[in-house]
Amino acid sequence: MVTAGQPQLLLGDLLERARREIPAAGADELEAQRVRLLGRKGELSALLRGMGALPAGERPAAGAAVNAARDEIEALLTARREAILREARAAELGGAPIDVTLPGRRIAARGRRHPVSEAQDDLVEILARMGYEVAEGPEIELDYYNFEALNMPPDHPARDMQDTFYVRPPAGARTAGPILLRTHTSPVQIRTMLARPPPVRICSPGKVYRRDDDPTHSPMFHQIEVLCVDRDITFGHLAGTLDAFVRGFFGEDFRVRLRPSYFPFVEPGAEVDVTCTFCLGKGCRTCKGSGFVEVLGAGLVHPRVLRAVGYDPEEVSGFAFGCGIDRLAMLRSGIDDLRLFFENDLRFLEQA
Ligand code: FA5
Fold first, then answer.
1. DSSP SS3 for 46
2. Is 106 contained in some domain?
3. Looking at the 3D structure of the chain, how many domains does it have?
């Protein structure tokens, strides 16, 4: 340790040692040298403290000498640090050359979007291009929105078309009527129309629930609802939109077929089929020989529904349709059992 006493002499020793040792130091040693020489408790600081014992006349010259020594040591440290970096870089460049033409390493298991999510995104995109915006509604729904406002009062026989999961509210909870897991996305029609005046152009994708379970019916599945209300909307607008919707999803060669059907919230109502993707319309087991598969329900919004949301059926009219997204994904992927989508078997999902 440097002590006060003969500062000039000691400074000379210290500098000489620094000039010898720093240029030969490795990276770790260099840091140790810096701390030992320049640190707060280092040798140079000790020398500075010792200068208090010098006669007043000698102090300025001694202080200047210590400062010059500090500058020199710092320069030595910087030079050595840069030399170490240069040496490391040279070693790196001198090592095995990198072949930039080699193929990249393959990622063993790459994830992908679920076929149902892909189908849903594609459908929303097709509708967005036609000017529809996305609207959302809750999956746990009031009976009122799911049935009653859609022209299905309690005990209406059409409620049996959708076997329903009812939800028991927590004890003591006050609710505006019975609660259920929504059986279709049609309640979003009501919520949207109650919230704003016409015109309305929305689509609403989401999960729905029914007491169903077989190869083409799942207890949880996905629908997308489409609603268009404006002045002078006709069945022709519905047919044209369905045509563009189906061709946008499956391709230009696909056709839609409308069959009269009954849904209490539309009049007239229709069930809509598309060309069977398995046989391309020739007739097969999946389409039971008809060349078509049913994918959605549609119709012109019933005047009673328009009145229930405060719209005037003399002023505006509209069409709506509700489509099974899983069915569309199934047809597009060539799968004949819907349940495969929900078993999460990676071997299946990678192929679908
Ligand atoms: C409805 O749900 C009506 N809300 C559709 C509608 C909307 C009609 C607007 C008129 C106006 P439906 O119960 O037929 O209709 O179901 C519509 C589609 O959902 C069916 O065509 C089918 O593709 C699909 N779907 C129905 N049940 C299931 C199920 N359990 N699993 C998978 N897909 C189903």
1. helix
2. no
3. 2
The CB of 184 under 6 Å from ligand 1? The reply is yes
Say if ligand 1 is within 6 A of residue 218 CB.
Answer: yes
Domain that holds residue 10: 6-93
**Ligand 1 binding pocket mutation candidate from 147, 221, 262, 302 (most atoms within 8 A of CB):** 221
Query: Would the CB of 326 count as within 6 Å of ligand 1?
Result: yes
Instruction: Establish whether residue 230 lines the binding site of ligand 1, counting it when its CB lies within 6 angstroms of any ligand atom.
Output: no
Query: Tokens at residue 315, please?
Result: 């002023």
Task: Report the C-alpha gap between 330 and 115 in whole angstroms.
Answer: 8
The pLDDT of residue 287 is above 70: yes
CA of 232 to the centre of ligand 1 (A): 26
pLDDT for the residue numbered 6: 59
Q: What is the mean pLDDT of the chain?
A: 90
Provide the pLDDT for residue 336: 80
pTM of the full structure? 0.71
Of 182, 300, 327, the one to substitute when testing ligand 1's pocket (max ligand atoms within 8 A of C-beta) is: 327
Given 46, 62, 93, which residue is the final one in a domain? 93
User: Is residue 149 domain-shared with residue 290, that is, in the same domain?
Assistant: yes
Per-residue model confidence (pLDDT) at position 4: 45
Query: Burial letters for 8-23: b for 16+ Cβ neighbours within 10 Å, e otherwise?
Result: eebbeebbeebeebbe
Q: 142 has which bridge partners?
A: 179
- pLDDT band at residue 48 under the 50/70/90 scheme: confident
Q: What pLDDT was estimated at residue 352? A: 63
According to DSSP, residue 224 is labeled E
Among 262, 257, 272, smallest CA distance to 226 is for: 272
Is the beta carbon of 187 within 6 A of some atom in ligand 1? no
Residues 255 and 137 in one domain: yes
